[in-house]
Specification:
Shape: globular
Distance between the termini: 12 Å
CATH class: Mainly Beta
CATH architecture: 6 Propeller
Strand order of the largest sheet: 1-24-23-22
CATH topology: Neuraminidase
Number of domains: 1
Number of strands: 24
Helix content: under 10%
Strand content: over 45%
């Protein structure tokens, strides 16, 4: 594995990396800087747009055009023109903000919430938005985080970070409803699960906040396959590019030795 730091903007909390496989580019956010980033791996171009409240989750629309979740609503951003416009809202309380999310295969926007500015137990939930309507599909969460669909789209994997577990829900593609099935993975070390993604073999890759690594897990038997260490404590999320290599976001920590937290990393697992 070859590891490289490809961006460091002194961010407190980088999050939400998502790779546009059709156009070969990356998006990510700096939550408390209200910034959304576009990165072109070929040209190394980085663009950013600032919103008016904490940003969290990105949904790809087309080349250089995305929808991003902010505390004050969902905005369409066009990196071709560097313009933004409000597109829809999900009503949330003042003491929460949006966090991690995913789009289902039918185009529904799924996104969770957490306490803000203070984390409070069980005040979060996970919403599903479609065609101007939204509903709650998971209730009483604390820090709604990683979401990933199984390769056959029958299961939705979900992380509520303080549980230190990955939950498995049966997912109905027709209705967008979920049904809790079981907890499939439990973290017993220092790291707690944050964002995650799934690889082409159906294995889950999970960023470990406080664990200084990304770990790979088998969701069928719950066993850890491997872990990839990073030079910073708080690892927040990850996604694959078209070569099955990993982009990883991180956050600052209280450690004086943690000078690389808040950076974007590239982990080359498969050399060309």
């Amino acid at each position: 594995m070859t590891q490289s730091l490809i961006f460091h903007g002194n961010s407190e909390l980088l999050e939400g990396p998502i790779f546009d496989t059709k156009n070969n580019c990356l998006y990510f956010v700096s939550i408390f800087d209200y910034l959304v980033y576009f990165y072109n791996p070929q040209t190394k171009e980085i663009l950013s747009i600032k919103l008016d409240s904490p940003v969290s989750c990105i949904y790809i629309q087309e080349h250089k055009k995305i929808i991003v979740a902010t505390k004050n609503g969902f905005f369409e951003i066009d990196f071709n023109t560097l313009k933004k416009k409000s597109v829809f809202k999900i009503d949330i309380d003042d003491n929460v903000r949006f966090n991690d999310g995913i789009k289902d295969p039918n185009g529904r926007y799924i996104i969770g919430t957490m306490g803000y500015p203070d984390v409070k137990k069980n005040i979060g939930q996970v919403f599903s938005y479609d065609m101007g309507q939204y509903k709650t599909i998971i209730e009483n969460t604390t820090i709604s985080n990683g979401l990933a669909f199984s390769l056959d789209n029958k299961w939705l994997y979900f992380i509520d970070t303080p549980t230190k577990k990955v939950a498995k829900y049966a997912y109905d593609l027709n209705t967008g409803d979920v049904q809790f099935d079981s907890y499939i993975i439990e973290f017993l070390g220092d790291g707690v699960p944050d964002g995650m993604c799934i690889d082409n073999n159906g294995m889950l890759w999970i960023a470990e906040w406080g664990g200084a690594c990304v770990s790979q897990w088998n969701p069928v038997d719950g066993n850890k396959i491997q872990q990839l260490e990073l030079p910073c404590t708080n690892v927040t999320s990850c996604c694959f590019d078209n070569e099955a290599n990993l982009y990883v976001t991180t956050a600052m920590s209280a450690s004086a030795n943690d000078i690389y937290g808040g950076g974007l990393y590239y982990l080359e697992l498969n050399k060309k």
